[in-house]
Amino acid sequence: MKIVALAGSVVGSKTKTAMVKTVEMLEKKYPQHEVALLDLAEYTMEFSDGRNYFDYDGDTKYVTEKIMGADAIIIGTPTFQASIPGTLKNIFDLLPVNAFRDKVVSTVVTAGSPKHYLMVEQQLKPILAYMKAQIVQTYVFIEEKDFHRKEIVNDDILFRLERLVEDTVLLTETYKKIQAERDAEYDF
């Protein structure tokens, strides 16, 4: 199974810290799976101009093809102005409408205030549903107070990240099994 952890911002450290921890948990508990961390701060992404994702070059082509090749995606995003950052929105714009069909997608959200938890429900989940994702319904919401010196210090957050990792892998395995059984019904 191929899992992509996407840190969806080019600024700040909290989202990347959360995603690095998530990848560590994935690699420790599920070493048999291929896990890749895509930190958008490390790539030079072009703005979407309507082309197919495979018509881009360089980092844009690499990132979009890595996402399209994944079985599961864990999206990490900060909350900026009560919304997702433009860098993450650009990723969605670069991908086709059905980009997440047959993929499991889960989310980790960082925010400076507990008041922004609805951003996931009102903005991110509808985008993922529109793009045909199998969404892990629970997500991890991490506030600024849960970090200290670029470390997650809240044990409950660490527990919830572990559970998100388990739920993502379990749902992906289950979904793949269902797909295989459905495909086996056909004679070709």
Task: Describe the overall structure.
The chain is of the alpha/beta class and 188 residues long. It has one domain: Rossmann fold (3-Layer(aba) Sandwich), CATH 3.40.50.360. Helices cover 42% and strands 20% of the residues. It contains 5 helices and 8 strands. The strands form 2 sheets. Strands 1, 2, 3, 4, 5 and 6 form a 6-stranded parallel β-sheet that branches. Strands 7-8 form a two-stranded antiparallel ribbon. It is globular.
The total tally of domains equals: 1
Q: Helix/strand-derived class?
A: alpha/beta
Q: CATH first level: which class?
A: Alpha Beta
Instruction: Based on the coordinates given, report the CATH architecture.
Output: 3-Layer(aba) Sandwich
How much of the sequence lies in strands comes to 15-25%
Strand tally is 8
What would the CATH topology be? Answer: Rossmann fold
The poorly predicted ranges are none
Radius of gyration: 16 Å
The proportion of residues forming helix, as a percent range, comes to 40-55%
Distance between the termini: 24 Å
Brief description of this entry?
The protein is an alpha/beta fold and 188 residues long.
Q: Any descriptors?
A:
188 residues, alpha/beta, Rossmann fold, two-stranded antiparallel ribbon, 5 helices, 8 strands, 20% strand, globular
Chart the SSEs and their pairings.
Blueprint: E1 2-7, H1 14-29, E2 34-39, H2 58-68, E3 72-78, H3 86-94, E4 104-111, H4 118-130, E5 134-135, E6 140-143, E7 147-148, E8 151-152, H5 155-184
Helix pairs in contact: 1-5
